[in-house]
């Protein structure tokens, strides 16, 4: 399937070979060799496909190195550091290495780095080493998830705000680490070595498309102004719609694949089903703007300063 993109001020429109994977989310883009010197028209076309499909995939990008991945990512905007608390790939402060043998497993729905007041806009993930079986990732469209909510629950979501924190990493606790390798424990405590907490709107307005999107996931602590039991029930209802198969796409990785997702309109889940097989991926992220709710209120940092991790991203001109 060929998708034509609208012209941009800096370039003439180009057509990409884009094959949608589901109706609501996900597409594979073929015939593009990712690099830091891609022309502006191709970059604009990839960005347009990303905004439309939420996550896009590229096979056969085995030529990429950390340097090339960084150079390519820069074409989409300013970059964040690798992570607010965890160490980066050695020699590459902008590259976050997720190595399963060192505790780099998620196994929970989340949006990247929502425990800061400026979560990344775009994440670019490169498959360095992939298990022979397992290790797939699922993405969910949090815009369609929002519209799938019953009317009354959607109206409530529009008004609610919620605390996110890195002290609540997918709900894990220190006692859950008993019996795990020491490197897993070190990663756990490194993640929490500097406290971050932020109050976000439950529904953010996408800064490029204007669409409402659920801003939730594994770093959520509790809804504000709601008791713990009510918060738990509401967050579970929101999570159920995010995980609906109709809102998701599942990608079976091969070494050399690249996934690019709109972190403002998705959650994802890295499936932890590959036992002791090696799984290494490298992530580079594009800086995002401070989320804004439907009432015009911005997210507010309650603990931690994310300015060293991420500059405040700019929204591309229309």
From TrEMBL:
Its cofactor is Fe(2+). InterPro entries: AtsK-like, TauD-like_sf, TauD/TfdA-like. Gene3D superfamilies: Clavaminate synthase-like. The lineage of its organism: Bacteria, Bacillati, Actinomycetota, Actinomycetes, Frankiales. It comes from the Bacteria. Residues 298-318 are annotated as: Disordered. One of its GO terms (cellular component) is cytoplasm. The keyword Oxidoreductase applies. The keyword Lipid metabolism does not apply. It comes from Frankia nepalensis. Keywords: Dioxygenase, Iron, Metal-binding, Oxidoreductase. Belongs to the TfdA dioxygenase family. GO terms for molecular function: 2-oxoglutarate-dependent dioxygenase activity; metal ion binding. This is TauD/TfdA family dioxygenase. Residues 18-285 form the TauD/TfdA-like domain. SUPFAM superfamilies: Clavaminate synthase-like.
